[in-house]
What does this fold into?
Amino acid sequence: MNGKFPQHFLWGGAVAANQVEGAYQADGKGLSTSDLQPQGIFGAITPRMAGDSGIKDVAIDFYHRYPEDIALFAEMGFKCLRTSIAWTRIFPQGDEETPNEAGLAFYDRLFDEMAKYGIQPLITLSHYEMPYGLVKHYGGWGDRRTIDFFERYARTVFERYKHKVKHWLTFNEINMSLHAPFTGVGLPQESDKSAVYQAIHHQLVASARAVKACHEIVPEGKIGNMLLGGILYPLSCKPEDLLETQRQNRDWLFFGDVQARGYYPAYMQRFFRENGIQVAITEEDRQTLRETIDFISFSYYMSGCVTADPEQFETARGNILDMVPNPHLASSEWGWQIDPIGLRYLLNVLYDRYQKPLFIVENGLGAKDRVEADGSINDDYRINYLNDHLVQVAEAIDDGVEVMGYTSWGPIDLVSASKAEMSKRYGFIHVDRDDAGNGSLERRRKKSFYWYRDVIHSNGASLKDRR
It folds into this structure.
């Protein structure tokens, strides 16, 4: 792999505020939609009552322990750390005129700590959460006024951190709103398609406004989108399977098309028309959408298959999505199919489509790690998974794809998004906490910690092609 990764490739890891920070009401923070999902994205929406507690309330206590964790990331050689700002730390209800200074000060301290080690922040503005106040009083992204509230928030943090943060993302996995509307746009799960797509439209306009604001306030910075990279293959070479695969891939590529090209593609106009979906789009909206992103970022965990006859096949739950399993692939403990070559394929698809730099901002293996009697954690399965995916990233770079960097998901164990579990571990660093919230929160290096340190130090030369 020597020489395939660019000299200034941004190696690192990725976390999210609501999965690591804890301190869910500290220093004036308001309730977020994530705080009302104590069992994760697929759990019930539960109003908070006095005395309630959930595992995300403390998470791994990154809010108080970040200096220790940043030092561990620096020991691995991180060039970049992706995290998110908790919107409710800055605007607790979402509609305030004045931001919460204590929340702003926390991220100042965090970014200053990263700067001590030369770690560049990659910051997501909204990662699977928004102020619950905006849901309760306005109906979330279903109300056009939320665009203005988001723009105020975005401009506030751009102004505050313009000298500390040069890489930004707007909405995490923006396409997942089609499958989890409350998490994505603050709408009830049973909302009809017109309501969901209207809320998504408002979010796309807000994203474009944030892009414009970033270009004005942080002129030397770059801002991208973030897609759930749910690449799908046809299950067979039947023409019907190919057409259905194209249609389902367009379901999520549509978001990138709008954010990277600046307008709604014709195939979506037909989709809206044939499904009776009404979306109010103003001329001002159309002008706003022309503010396009600088780069494409995405998550990649698995691929899946599509057939025009889905009732004949069982589906498997993956990362938010249900897919027809690929008979040629193995699966993880959670049933996610492992497809390293799919990452190379996806990188080429996205680069061919958009001709913009790409950033892999999530990729990792959730597994049940075992602590040995001597305290070691021998996670060779994680090493093999990441090694094989990174080999394919190198191949894509050799194909001519411009890749900015790679931030593995969960460089430290965190609370999983889907079911709020600690037992589904991704990290190079073990955190002593279980699904019931018991444990010392002690950090411990896994075998993969030293492996990833070598990968970064060698700029990928230590990777092994195991094919």
The chain has a mean pLDDT of 95. DSSP finds 14 helices and 14 strands in the chain.
